[in-house]
């Protein structure tokens, strides 16, 4: 029925809205309103809005707007406006609270404060959406994929959902449902749920029609029962069964397989939080990969009973068939299946000829290496280092057996054979509670490979990616693998006592599997613990199977466990903590006081108990884990703690508690295995001999049994919910740690205080996130990540536009029309990688030099910024054109770095010079200029080169220009003119000195240079400095004149000044402050450039002369010593952004200030 | 008396878990490989990491012990003098050159570790008895200095 309805709806919709863009008019207007209220940019997509109250003293009725990057609230009652705007990435916790003060509300906390919202009409939906959006934001923080709309998904699920729901909400719902669908049936990533229908499945083993739901996606048809039929009594009831009240709801069986709709979110009949409503589950589930389907057809037989009406038959290529009946909207379902089947045959046909299948499939899973499966491209090295795929190692290195254990194995195998006969074998077997019971007993070693592949879903990917592993392993053997050293180190630490890993067969296979995985998924690379999991799997499975199992575990079963921050494992520690507090409350307080909880789950969960139990015992846990998912780990962990409850109560410290648990786990035996071969890798507490004597010894099957009977109500969906909550906490903690260590790294530079750096960092991070969340900046390509974890301070990079903003806000050099040039040169100076990005440390250096360094250092920076290669010929020659283009021009400079002139220093030398000086001046705070100068003179490294006239004039022009906007200070122009004159004279002196020595005549050049200068300033050259001020101020009043006249006017004016006033001043100046005799002048002689008009080749000033001259003018000294207030500047920047773009985080909006604060 | 020796997890990605592992430690043993200068160089960062994560009351006087391991090998790359200098500069950290393989100096090293840990523990207990009195004066200043390094 749904399909009919939805189809009709969509048809109607299509007709009524020819220009359908998926949104209703009402929602559009809401979006408009939202954007207006919060000044949100068009990129910020509104997901939905809900009516509710915000508690601020009294409840304020209003609307909660949930958008992709923000949670916003707006209320306007009785003339009082209340606005709240929180960035998802700032939220540290989301709770449902029901206190007396805030009844039945949702509590949202940031690091600063908590917000309470209540009186929701749809509290559950709102809460879930909030949680979902916050978790998307957390993934973004962890540098995983941000949110991008998936138009395909919207259209898919929209068929089932009322069109009143906004498109993005539908997208998110669909996303959640697809995720639940995938995790429920262990399907490969990227599989999107297309639709579902109620129907019955004919189960031949008990000859019944079982009610359930059929799920359809592009590559699979799945079924799971959710029947109202009486539950079958499990074949064997637990003797140890202890009924236990649990918040996970009551269930009649102690074994409750997850297959049976635990993920409630799928069926509408079972609402997402339907933990308690699920009446019967796990009766049967079925997964049919469409690639194995030969045909899907109607199965109508005349005169059939009601049980067989609307029947649908799916036939497999291997002469198996499945019969569904009473299928709701059967014809549409059939049509969809047929469509997918047709697509599939097309693509497989195509892949057979030109091999596109791997590309198309892999492109879904974000960031994974795609393998070109063309064998021709395997590379020439393939024949050189030839290797064979390793079959399961257990055949080559069999475990010792006794007649008794062999008998047990055989019996188990028999039971499984019987099960196969009854329920089918392979991917399409009917999975029932009987299957679950068999798994709990431990899968026989010979069947492990097959069943692990089936239960984990790894088999699907292996089947659809033929050759993928071999290719990757091949590439890994010849190329560079991220983390190769770490892999190599751990090869001999993985099951080191097992003979298989004392031989090259095991070691080589392990190396190949781990390297291939590191290549496949650079987000994870290699993480310790994967070696242990992989080595155990290699015993039972082939190399290729091991690889795909590893894929299933790392990417689906234990999501985020092994990434660079082991986020998933940290999250699950928190989840376990919650579970302990519910299930074992007495123990919880004890463990909490000991502080053990955060330590235990790590190695337990990361290695699926393989590293803490003897592996032959732990492998039984692995059986259950691959069948049942993460909940197995939690149940076993709880059972272990429960079993040691009394001993743990007596422990005095964390170490003792850990020892108790280690000892217990080390002693877990497996009655199927006669001799203990393995050894724990992380903790070695006792020798096997001791284990034998221990009274705590427990068999693994008993432990698992305990786990399932006492904690079996725990469902994966319950875990998933808890994870959502803890992920926020974990990631925000990591963010805090990252920020602190980043600041610690950079703080050592001593330019800024911790608080200032924190502000700066938060601003940069917000900018980064804004860019990311609006999708303007592409997400970092995971494949480009470096092998080693980059330093903390390299996490967030600052590009030129952002630096430009900061420069203008922070530096007092940002006045005037030349400021952008200074900014771009400064940026270029510091950008050591040449990528157009600064890391936090470089940024703090640069901003520190610009705003915090002492006078000599800052003058040195200013001087150096006007030297080649920073100042290139092109820039000096080009008149100041349109300033708006400066930024883009500046960016081009980075690309087109002109080759440095022979006499000048390279960029890196310049940088070193400045930073070295920065370091010195930092240690000697308040250094006088003389010590700065002499220090520079005494330096061993490269010296700051001399400046020629052209460069000097350019520099002086810049300096004038900086003040062109400050009308109130004519004195400063006087000062600049004075110093400029002085320096020009000094340059002349140097020139004369040289001229005498070289006896070369360039008087003509000098004349030609001064002649137009006099005419340009002919009006009143004699009034000297005052006229200079006037002339410099002139361009400001007539902005158009600047580009054209500014260049010649100002520089030549200075020259004119030097000509006219030079003679009378020279004597006193030289007596006042004789320019230090500079050996650099001799160097200059060798490095003479061809004379070019109007500048003078021999003319030169040195940094020392420049500094010495500037310090004669207190106004300039004050200017170059000014320390700007970073905190205030960053604050204003953040609030500016809020007004411009509303990317507020902490509630400092001006509007809010009136309403909230 | 019984001592527990905890080894930190290997890869860098596990370092975020340090807090739990470092908490309540009485002594921190930094081990480097005398044949590998890199391991010596990273001693600084490990020490900082520990002090930050464990945040002991008196970071300047928290007992560290530095061990230069693998002295049985011939290809030694870090001179004893350099290591001693470093230890000297960090408030006289005891330094031992050891070989786990040949059991050289291991006994002595652990004697010192145990002694210093014991001394630290009694000091901590002292702190615990008068928590408020101590915090008022010199302690906070010391902490700040440690953060700056």
Could you please describe the fold and organization of this structure?
The complex is a heterodimer of chains A (1157) and B (149). With 1157 residues, chain A is α+β, with helices and mostly antiparallel strands. Among the domains of chain A are: 33-142, Pleckstrin-homology domain (PH domain)/Phosphotyrosine-binding domain (PTB) (PH-domain like, Roll), CATH 2.30.29.30; 168-228 and 280-348, Pleckstrin-homology domain (PH domain)/Phosphotyrosine-binding domain (PTB) (PH-domain like, Roll); 393-560, putative rabgap domain of human tbc1 domain family member 14 like domains (Helicase, Ruva Protein, domain 3, Orthogonal Bundle); 565-748, Cyclin A, domain 1. Chain A contains 47 helices and 21 strands. In chain A, strands 12-13-14-8-9-10-11-15 form an eight-stranded antiparallel sheet. Chain A has a seven-stranded antiparallel sheet with strand order 4-3-2-1-7-6-5. In chain A, helix 31 packs parallel to helix 35 (886-895). Chain A is elongated and about 110 Å long. The two termini of chain A are 53 Å apart. The C terminus of chain A is likely disordered. Chain B is mostly helical and 149 residues long. Chain B has a single domain (12-127), classed as 3-Layer(aba) Sandwich (Rossmann fold), CATH 3.40.50.300. In chain B, 49% of the residues lie in helices and 10% in strands. Chain B has six helices and three strands, in the order αβααβαβαα. Chain B has a three-stranded parallel sheet, sandwiched between helices. Chain B is globular, with a radius of gyration of 16 Å. Residues 128-149 of chain B have low confidence and may be disordered. The chains are: A alpha+beta (1157), B mainly alpha (149). Chain B: InterPro entries: P-loop_NTPase, Small_GTP-bd, Small_GTPase. Chain B: GO terms for molecular function: GTP binding; GTPase activity. Chain B: One of its GO terms (cellular component) is lysosome. Chain B: Keywords: GTP-binding, Nucleotide-binding. Chain B: Pfam families: Ras. Chain A: Pfam families: GRAM, RabGAP-TBC.
